[in-house]
Every structure is written in structure tokens, then in C-alpha cells.
Write a structure and sequence with these properties.
Keywords: Cytokinin biosynthesis, Hydrolase
Structural class: alpha/beta
Strand content: 15-25%
Protein name: Cytokinin riboside 5'-monophosphate phosphoribohydrolase
GO molecular function: hydrolase activity, hydrolyzing N-glycosyl compounds
Family: Belongs to the LOG family.
InterPro entries: LOG, LOG_fam
Strand order of the largest sheet: 4-3-2-1-5-6-7
Helix content: 40-55%
């Protein structure tokens, strides 16, 4: 596993625990010698995971559509920055470059990106591990919603296992590496 795409909020959230966890994930990824692929912002959890990677000597690729240059401040310190035309190109480039995916706490954009890669895994478009860094139980309601969709017959019983979930960045890294080996 050489690179991981991280989906994360461009806002910091109301608790400092989220920013701290994002930085620790970046540091863990650097220790595990994997490249960070992410949305390219210097703000919020996105910026903090990139800062953690860079502080740990890791490689960071930011990908941002031109239309977000004013709304999301570009992270000028990344190893590589790729400008794309739109959100579809951004997500396609991030997916193409990634060997795995991790979602940090975030809002609607993070949820959309997470569910897209989950759906793609479900229908066999990719066989890449997907993880949730479940900071302070942030994703507990989402995990429960997925379980509920299984109970109600809308999701296959095997599909929740597509997610690796941990509150610890190093543990999550190990889970994703093990899953990547098993998916080969």
C-alpha cells in the first residue's frame, strides 16, 4: 500500500479533538511510509492531516478544482499540487492515485466521497480497503445507519465489512494494510 486518499472536513469542527486526530493520522501515515492524497486545502481537518504528514517527512498530493481556490485556501506546502477542472475530476484523480481510503470526521462532502467509494467497492469497481477514523465516536451514527440498512434488506449482510473502523490511527493503518493483503 503506497498511497491513501483521505476524505476530511475543510472545517475544524467544534472540538479540538478532531484537529488533533487529523494531525496524528498524518503522522501515522508518514511513519507507515504511505503518500497522502487529499483535497488540497490548508484549512480544517484536511489541512491538519497534510500538516501532520509533512511534519513527519511524508509525501502529500493535494488535488483541487479551480472553482474552490477562493473557498478553500490552497495548501502551498504540499509535495505535489494538482489543479483539476471540477469535482468529478478531483474524485477520479484521488481514486486513481489511492491504494486505500480513510474518512475523517467531516460534513456532506466527506459523506458523499465515503459513500461513493463504498458503493464502488460493493459493486466491484475497486478492491481497495476503506477505513473510518472514528474520533470520539463521530461515525457511530453512520455505522448504525449502515447496519439498519442491512436489517431492512437494502444492503447485503457482507457489505458492512467493507469498512475498517478504529479511533487509533496506527491501528487503522494496520487494519488497512492487512485488508489490502487479503484483497490481492
Amino acid at each position: 500500500m503506497n498511497s491513501i486518499c483521505v476524505f476530511a472536513g475543510s472545517r475544524p469542527g467544534h472540538s479540538s479533538v478532531y484537529l488533533e486526530a487529523a494531525g496524528k493520522l498524518g503522522e501515522a501515515m508518514a511513519r507507515h511510509h504511505v503518500r497522502l492524497v487529499y483535497g488540497g486545502s490548508s484549512r480544517g481537518l484536511m489541512g491538519e492531516v497534510a500538516n501532520g504528514m509533512l511534519a513527519g517527512g511524508g509525501q502529500v498530493t493535494g488535488i483541487m478544482p479551480t472553482l474552490l481556490f477562493d473557498a478553500e485556501i490552497i495548501h502551498r506546502g504540499v509535495t505535489e499540487f494538482i489543479e483539476v477542472a471540477n469535482m468529478h475530476e478531483r474524485k477520479a484523480a484521488m481514486s486513481d492515485m489511492a491504494d486505500a481510503f480513510i474518512a475523517l470526521p467531516g460534513g456532506l462532502g466527506t459523506f458523499e466521497e465515503l459513500f461513493e467509494v463504498l458503493c464502488w467497492a460493493q459493486i466491484g469497481i475497486h478492491r481497495k480497503p476503506i477505513g473510518l477514523l472514528n474520533v470520539s465516536g463521530y461515525f457511530d451514527p453512520l455505522v448504525e445507519m449502515v447496519r439498519h440498512s442491512v436489517q431492512e434488506g437494502f444492503t447485503g449482510a457482507e457489505h458492512p465489512s467493507l469498512l475498517s473502523i478504529s479511533a487509533d490511527p496506527d491501528e487503522l493503518m494496520h487494519m488497512l494494510k492487512n485488508k489490502a493483503e487479503n484483497l490481492k
